[in-house]
């Protein structure tokens, strides 16, 4: 029995054997070590440039040839893009053109929100066939049910600088100093921005290191750069005036959850926390979604268990699909999807009807700043009617509502057994 037990421990999983087989098939005892050794061959690096004009674009393309053909250049540096090249200069370095993505439209998405109220046509930029159709189906079901209720519950973009001290005692003394000088630190931060406000500052001590959780409201902007600049001013004021010796400090201690999923972001939020909900009548579920309330609830219980067992932060089906498409179309920072796509989807019976809701604590969108001023993204925001000052919170509510539509549609499709068929007909066999 013991020998059998030992032999079981030595079993090599099939996928490991297969991986080794593939590696060995590519390995050559003479050439592979040379191929993987450090190279001292000369190379000519591209010189970083913020300049964006037709002449600079042409210079970069000359350096890319012969790997890139004239046809490649024509696709990325098309005449309209090159003519408007200076428009893009504030958003990128080493500008060579633009990449075109398919943009689909979902709507009307009917919202009964605190900030977004009315019917909205929502542009989504994606290369995934079936995605727009799925979100459009969810929006149709929600619209037939009276529309989606939305509200921004809380807002505040985090930046968490870190300060290093010699000892725990000095870390505690530092926190005491920060509390005593909070008004001056707030003034230093807010002097850098017309729209940003430091609304809270919370110390977090780990022995000799102190993280300062700085939370800001950012007006109608997503505010990533805004809070970085403000926090830098706050930190420099601390470094200049603090009576406790500081060994080192960093503008971000990797505590805030910036562009990554984190438990802190799930609980406290980073950006705008938004809830969206709708109650779908049973007959609407059957007529528009091709399934039943009971079937959706039954699958929802299994999916919720799966999210817990797999260790998801939150419990949801696919927020990232809708958010990525929405962020790209409207000029948001697409990398923020890493933290924005967290939250909780709920589906509960209401008599014979189905209550559906989503809560996303980290919606990072803006109707001004960032990529919102680029030509295509400006057009997308104009389609929504949410371009410019005064629309940041409404844009966040639209983002949450579109996620809700996606949750409704995918749960219905899987519950009814239509998920694979839809992707075959709309994607593979298109």
TrEMBL record:
SUPFAM superfamilies named in the record: NAD-binding domain of HMG-CoA reductase, Substrate-binding domain of HMG-CoA reductase
Protein name: hydroxymethylglutaryl-CoA reductase (NADPH)
Record-linked Pfam families: HMG-CoA_red (PF00368)
Record EC number: 1.1.1.34
Region feature Disordered, mapped onto this chain: 31-51
Homology family: Belongs to the HMG-CoA reductase family.
TM region positions: none
Keywords: NADP, Oxidoreductase
InterPro entries: HMG_CoA_Rdtase, HMG_CoA_Rdtase_cat_sf, HMG_CoA_Rdtase_CS, HMG_CoA_Rdtase_eu_arc, HMG_CoA_Rdtase_NAD(P)-bd_sf, HMG_CoA_Rdtase_sub-bd_dom_sf
GO MF annotations in UniProt: hydroxymethylglutaryl-CoA reductase (NADPH) activity
GO biological process, one term: coenzyme A metabolic process
């Amino acid at each position: 029995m013991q020998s059998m037990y030992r032999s079981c421990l030595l079993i090599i999983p099939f996928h490991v054997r297969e991986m080794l087989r593939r590696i060995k098939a590519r390995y050559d005892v003479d050439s592979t070590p040379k191929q993987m050794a450090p190279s001292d061959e000369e190379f000519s690096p591209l010189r970083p440039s913020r300049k964006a004009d037709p002449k600079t674009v042409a210079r970069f393309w000359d350096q890319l040839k012969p790997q890139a053909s004239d046809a490649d250049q024509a696709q990325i540096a098309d005449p309209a893009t090159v003519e408007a090249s200076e428009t893009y200069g504030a958003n990128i370095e080493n500008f060579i053109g633009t990449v075109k993505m398919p943009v689909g439209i979902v709507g009307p998405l009917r919202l009964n929100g605190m900030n977004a109220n009315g019917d909205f046509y929502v542009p989504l930029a994606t290369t995934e066939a079936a995605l727009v159709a799925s979100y459009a189906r969810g929006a149709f079901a929600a619209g037939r049910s009276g529309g989606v209720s939305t509200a921004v519950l809380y807002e505040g973009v985090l930046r968490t600088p870190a300060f290093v001290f010699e000892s725990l005692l000095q870390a505690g003394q530092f926190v005491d100093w920060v509390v005593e000088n909070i008004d001056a630190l707030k003034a230093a931060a807010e002097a850098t921005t017309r729209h940003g406000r430091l609304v809270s500052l919370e110390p977090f001590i780990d022995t000799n290191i102190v993280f300062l959780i700085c939370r800001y409201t950012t007006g109608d902007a997503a505010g990533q750069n805004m809070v970085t600049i403000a926090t830098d001013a706050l930190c420099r004021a601390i470094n200049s005036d603090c009576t406790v010796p500081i060994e080192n400090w960093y503008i971000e201690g990797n505590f805030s959850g910036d562009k990554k999923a984190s438990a802190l972001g799930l609980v406290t939020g980073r950006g705008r926390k938004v809830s969206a909900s709708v109650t779908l009548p049973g007959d609407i579920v059957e007529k528009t979604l091709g399934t039943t309330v009971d079937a959706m609830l039954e699958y929802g219980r299994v999916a919720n268990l799966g999210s817990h067992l797999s260790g998801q932060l939150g419990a949801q089906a696919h927020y990232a699909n809708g958010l990525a498409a929405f962020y790209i179309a409207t000029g948001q920072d697409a990398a923020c999807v890493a933290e924005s796509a967290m939250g909780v989807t709920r589906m509960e019976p209401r008599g014979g009807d189905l209550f559906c809701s989503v809560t996303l604590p980290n919606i990072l969108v803006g109707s001004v700043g960032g990529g919102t001023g680029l030509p295509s993204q400006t057009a997308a925001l104009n389609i929504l009617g949410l371009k410019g000052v005064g629309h940041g919170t409404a844009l966040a509510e639209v983002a949450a509502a579109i996620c809700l539509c996606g949750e409704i549609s995918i749960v219905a499709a899987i519950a009814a057994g239509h998920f694979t068929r839809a992707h075959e007909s709309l994607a593979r066999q298109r």
